[in-house]
Design a protein that fits this description.
- It is a single chain.
- With about 450 residues, the chain is an alpha/beta fold.
- The chain folds into two domains: about 120 residues, Aspartate Aminotransferase, domain 1, CATH 3.90.1150.10; about 260 residues, Type I PLP-dependent aspartate aminotransferase-like (Major domain) (Aspartate Aminotransferase, domain 2), CATH 3.40.640.
- Helix content is about 35%, strand content about 15%.
- It has 13 helices and 17 strands.
- The strands form five sheets. The chain has a seven-stranded mixed beta sheet, with helices on both faces.
- A hairpin with a 2-residue loop joins β5 and β6.
- α6 packs parallel to α7 and α8 packs parallel to α9.
- It is globular, with a radius of gyration of 25 Å.
- The termini are far apart.
């Protein structure tokens, strides 16, 4: 840097206060071979050459539209109305950073207010915040909210949550010094008896976290689990698929205190797994503890409608160590996409999306289980648009052979659980065509008749 504001004396005083004698001691936790690496970079390119190279690299990507896609597991291929990219592509939205002087940006504040209103209505709860980073951070932030509110340090979560949500939960809990215990599953669903035993033993529980539907696509007995939580004096957090909430009982109707979810399905492309947007809603009495930002509607000096940041619980503001959370901002652009999507689709449109997805997923499951060697891993358990398919061999090998035919046949569950090595998590959405379902069935039949295929039992 051309200018260093700290003098040598300043630096020595700072080191002394840390009990150190040399600046290099600040970096002692970093392995030596990672410090000051020599990067073997090619010669710089001209603007023309760089553009050609970037296009060459981009051409190596194969978008989901070029596949028969049956992947889900948290990131879904959904139809996005043209009004969504048109809205978020407007320069006043697309080029704006999250407004720090927010009251000067009334248009953006209004979109966030509309987002909060729609999420609160979708989840049937009193208030939603201005968004989180994704569903995992929304869930973890909701869990820590419950810990702070109840004064209890134990989080009880269903092991049928998405494994990546559980990983983020574990990280958050460890940083807070909270205890994270998992409720086992039985036949793919959260074991209610195990949940009741867990609530009756050990330290008092702050919150019980249940998915709806769960990671395996199954519809959980969420109301029963919410009631179990309340009988133990704990809060209940339902991690609800936002589209499923349009057809199943939403978290508020189940009696949940909190709801979290991932809004990727609400008008946001899969785009290599992110960014998405986290949804977090709660009952009114918990609003003072909600993390991030909350936009409210008021009146200006002339009596006109105006918007302002009603709550800013972030640590950079005056709350500092009393901050609710370390979450610094909200995903305003992605929240705007979700807002445009929900406004365009409406309640009837959301229900229609789920209805089509439900019908196509069940048709696909029926066709695939008619192929010798395939069956549903969880029998007659109800599901919406995602299900676990048990294959006659290693699911990873099956997925690889299907990919050779242009079919993304599902997510091999062995990557999360070795006991599920022969299982695929398969999804169908409104973008899954009848012809794609036929191609999947035909490919499964042909591969099942070829025992030499990798991983397929003869």
């Amino acid at each position: 840097m051309a200018y260093l504001p700290s003098s040598d004396r300043d630096r020595q005083e700072m080191l002394a206060s840390l009990g150190l004698t040399d600046v290099s001691a600040l970096f002692r936790e970093i392995p030596g071979h990672l410090q000051n690496p020599v990067l073997d970079l090619p010669e710089p390119l001209s603007e023309l050459e760089l553009g050609l190279e970037m296009r060459r690299l981009a051409d190596a990507n194969r978008p989901l539209s070029k596949w028969d896609c049956f992947l889900g597991a948290g990131i879904y291929s959904r139809f996005i109305p043209a009004i969504v990219p048109a809205t978020i592509g407007r320069p006043e939205f697309y080029t704006a950073y999250t407004p720090y002087q927010a009251e000067a940006s009334q248009g953006y504040l209004q979109t966030i207010f509309e987002f909060q209103s729609l999420v609160a209505e979708l989840y049937d709860l009193d208030v939603a915040n201005a968004s989180m980073y994704d569903g995992a951070t929304a869930t973890a932030e909701g869990a820590l909210l419950a810990v702070a509110h109840t004064g209890r340090e134990r989080i009880l979560a269903s092991s049928a949550l998405h494994p990546e949500i559980l990983a983020v939960l574990a990280t958050y809990a460890s940083g807070r010094g909270a205890e994270l215990d998992l409720i086992p599953t039985r036949d793919g669903l959260t074991d209610q008896e195990a949940a009741e035993r867990a609530l009756q033993t050990g330290s008092p529980t702050a919150v019980v976290i249940v998915p709806q539907p769960n990671f395996f696509g199954l519809v959980e007995p969420a109301r029963d689990l919410v009631e179990l939580a309340h009988r133990a004096g704990a809060l209940a957090l339902v991690v609800a698929d936002p589209l499923a909430a349009a057809v199943l009982e939403p978290p508020g109707a189940l009696g949940a205190d909190l709801a979290a979810g991932d809004g990727q399905q609400l008008g946001i492309p899969a785009q290599l797994g992110g960014p998405a947007v986290g949804l977090l809603a709660c009952r009114q009495e918990l609003v003072r503890r909600i993390p991030g930002r909350l936009v409210g509607m008021t009146k200006d000096a002339a009596g006109g409608r105006a918007y302002c940041l009603t709550l800013q619980t972030r640590e950079q503001h005056i709350r500092r160590e009393r901050a609710t959370s370390n979450i610094c901002t909200n995903h305003a652009l992605m929240a705007l996409a979700a807002t445009a999507y929900m406004a365009k689709m409406g309640e009837a449109g959301l229900r229609r999306v789920v209805d089509i997805s439900y019908r196509r997923a069940h048709e696909l499951a029926q066709r695939l289980t008619a192929v010798p060697g395939f069956r549903l891993a969880h029998g007659e358990a109800p599901f919406l648009f995602e299900f676990v398919l048990e294959c006659p061999g290693d699911a990873g090998a099956w997925a690889g052979r299907l990919a050779e035919r242009g079919i993304l046949g599902g997510l091999p569950l062995g990557r999360f659980d070795p006991t599920r090595a022969n299982q695929l998590l398969v999804c169908a959405t409104e973008t899954t065509s009848p012809q794609a379902i036929e191609r999947y069935e035909q490919a499964a039949r042909e591969l099942a008749q070829a025992p030499a295929a990798a991983g397929v039992r003869s």
